Amino acid sequence: MEHFIVSARKYRPQNFADVIGQQSITNTLEKAIENNHLAQALLFTGPRGVGKTSCARILAKNINQQDAEFSSDEDFAFNIFELDAASNNSVDDIRSLTDQVRIPPQTGKYKVYIIDEVHMLSQSAFNAFLKTLEEPPAHAIFILATTEKHKIIPTILSRCQIFDFKRIGVLDAKNYLKVICEKENIIADDDALHIIAQKADGAMRDALSIFDRVISFSGNTLTREAVAENLNVLDYETYFNMTDLMLSNKIPQVLNAFNVVLGKGFEGHNFINGLASHFRDLLVAKDKVTLELLEVGDAAKKKYLEQASKASIPFLMQAINKANDCDLNYKASKNQRLLVELILMQIASITFDGEKKKSANYIIPATFFQSLSPAVKEIAKLSQEKTAIVKPKEVKDSGQNLKTPILKSAQRRNSSLTLKSVHEEKVVKKVAEEENFDNHPKDIFTQEILQKLWKEYVTSLISKGERSMASILATDIPKLGQDFEISFIVPNKLMEDQFRKGRPKLMNFLREKLNNYGIQILVVLNETLEKKFAYTPQEKYNKMKEINPLLAKLRNAFELDM
């Protein structure tokens, strides 16, 4: 049985032309070798599986082959030293490396040291490596590779020529998978390869690993359905069907389709994110200028264009906003399924014009979808006929009883001028008159200015005779927080209630003086401060007794009561 070699190793790039999606870096390195303009310390950084180590090996091989004729027997491999910093991260390892660097190569011009995962070196090892890296021998070239550049100390970074590798695009990964399918005699759908490239998330090594897994599952024929089933991803057909149901305002069918998705083992969070991406793609497909942003196959692109013609731009914008809000609130929700279902019903109600919508979160009422069966309709018809027969009799009886005094048996009506009704009218009027200050000025102010105006307002209350409110405001210093929120501490519930009554006038005063209509005053009840204040006679007596203990003897001598 022939030994199986994974595609990531089998199709590892052997020259710069084979490297996918890093043309700018490969061209720079080729020109540097040709012009003898290569730095002695290079740092390759970027995500996993984008070609850092492969480019380092190709570069190390090509440096000594610049002047030599290419031969499979002469690859100068003995001039290339590849180290793993994860297992050689101590000072002793770096010291051993610096000792080896001093020895010139036996053949060739350069000795190349490839240090992979260099961010795993310890702090001491980095410091021990500094001098050698800054002033290496003329025959030594260091190539450092890492996925986490931020973990490397700045003194190392400043001594290296940095190359940032980017994620591989979906189309580039898909085209490379096509080439591999031709070499391996595999028949693959364009959409199937697109799903694999999307799942890889910019890493070519991950794409090849997924490719091997799917081949093991479905054989030499790759279909979109088989790939979606094996990778456990939602097919875009699911989103197309869901969008069609939403555009048709079919809420029951939408809920059933979502239940099918959950039954397959998918989370509601992933589904709503995928639906938002689908709406984004439909919005992109609305304009020819943005059509290039649609990274899908040709067959899928036709479907997107067809559905984009049915969906209006206002519908797509509202749907994207609602899906985004659901994404933000998903983790905080205690009933996550209900949250997604509400959002789906709201999206399905956007294009509904059967009733006047009173809010942005309008949902088509359930009565709209109720369909009466023939038996139910017959029962309803009979009940209407019965009501029509009984109704004249009730009118006749009521005419006979007109002579009886109605006031004796009738319930007295409450007057519309009761205290309760007046209070309710005031509350409704107050709520109705609340003003939206979103577009009003919000000037910045400091804590010192706030305290000065606070004292000014207390003085004005004293001059008006409102000493009770003034004394409450003088018990604590207001504190300015974030987003112009002012916190004020009160020691008991009684003072809290009085403060809340006088808070609207205080807020209007501060808003006008500071020219900031975003001010909010938060009252905080601190029960521990209540001990500092004495209100009842007993509390006042205990307070005075603490100050002067002789007061208790005086009370006992004269037999005084509280």
Give a brief description.
This protein is an alpha/beta fold and 562 residues long. The chain is 53% helix and 8% strand. The strands form 3 sheets. A 5-stranded parallel β-sheet has the order 2-3-4-1-5, covered by helices on one side. It has a 3-stranded mixed β-sheet with strand order 8-9-10, with helices on one face.
3D architecture notes:
Strand 8 and strand 9 form a beta hairpin. This protein folds into 4 domains: 143 residues, Rossmann fold (3-Layer(aba) Sandwich), CATH 3.40.50.300; 62 residues, Helicase, Ruva Protein, domain 3, CATH 1.10.8.60; 132 residues, Zinc Finger, Delta Prime, domain 3 (Up-down Bundle), CATH 1.20.272; 79 residues, 2-Layer Sandwich (GMP Synthetase, Chain A, domain 3), CATH 3.30.300. A 5-stranded parallel β-sheet has the order 2-3-4-1-5, with helices on one face. Helix 13 runs antiparallel to helix 15. 53% of the residues lie in helices and 8% in strands. It is flat. The longest helix is centred in the last third of the chain and has 27 residues. The protein has 23 helices and 10 strands. It is of the alpha/beta class.
